[in-house]
Amino acid sequence: MNQFEKRVVIVTGAGQGIGQGIALAFAAVGCGVILAGRTFGKLEVTKAMIDARGSGHAHCIACDVKSADSIAALIAEAIEHFGQIDILINNAQEVPMGTLEQVSDEQFVAGFESGPLATLRLMKLVKPHLAEKGGGVIVNLVSSAMKRWDMTGYGAYAAVKQAIQSLTRAAAAEWGSENIRVLNIAPHAESPGLKGWVEKNPKEAEEFFRTIPLGRIGTLEGDIGEAVVALCSPAMRYLTGATIPLDGGQANFD
Fold first, then answer.
1. Per-residue pLDDT at 159
2. For residue 186, how far is the Cα from the chain centroid?
């Protein structure tokens, strides 16, 4: 029997980019997929892609991860629709980019509300459902920006991602006895965010791409989505609390 066909995954930010790629990869192996995001129309596009393939089942739920009420409604509707939750992918986040003098208080607070705070809220809400099923997997998204030797323009962004990394380690330690695995991934992929960064910073982007040993940016579904599916498989049952760079070897996480 397909090890994923009776499992349900929630993917936040599933309307585009990495979230969409991860959602498509889980649907391809037969998962039920909750597509969550602020823009319902984008979620419907992802659902149409899944429906056209004929594998997996997707359900769209509009959700603002900065709102505790919206997050609670997301989990409630996911349970109402599928009856269970097995995997959570915390992908959606507003990113505070710029030098420390450029990033406003409002941008920094939004980064924390949509990043570490939303991640913590979602983890705590799904935890009882995962425990009820005898275990499950949570995957949080961080960034190789945390490892940059030159943090110019990336300090606020790295700070919110470092906070998520710490929450992941704590959850892995506290919930391991209930067979709940918690991981980070730090991806580089062909997302709208990365494409926008390349357009705004062509010289820096050209230099950055030269530092990727595999010589290319990852594809959304094939390189990132399929890797996340693999990390959530029973074959990885002894892996928890780790940060996995899905970046073609660019960042040094040692």
1. 97
2. 9
User: Around Cβ 123, how many Cβ atoms within 10 Å?
Assistant: 21
Catalytic residue status for 157: yes
Closest CA to 114 of 137, 140, 134: 140
3-state secondary structure of 41: helix
pLDDT score of 203: 87
Q: So what's the pLDDT on residue 1?
A: 52
172/241 Cα distance (integer angstroms): 5
Are 21 and 189 in contact by the 8 Å Cβ rule? The answer is yes
What would the DSSP string read from start to end of 47-71? HHHHHHHTSSEEEEEE--TT-HHHH
142-189 tens-digit pLDDT: 999 999 888 999 999 999 999 999 999 999 999 999 999 999 999 989
State the average pLDDT over residues 211-238.
95
Helix (H, G, I), strand (E, B) or coil at 84: coil
pLDDT at 52: 96
Query: In sequence order, what are the beta bridge partners of 32?
Result: 8, 57
pLDDT-derived band at 26 (thresholds 50, 70, 90) equals very high
**Residue 90, Cβ neighbours under 10 Å: how many?**
30
- CA 73, CA 168: separation in Å to the nearest integer? 23
Calpha distance 79→72 (Å, rounded): 11
Q: How far apart are CA 101 and CA 156, in angstroms?
A: 10
Catalytic residue among 157, 171, 189, 225: 157
CA count, 13 A, side-chain hemisphere, 160: 24
Question: Cα separation of 183 and 211, whole Å?
Answer: 25
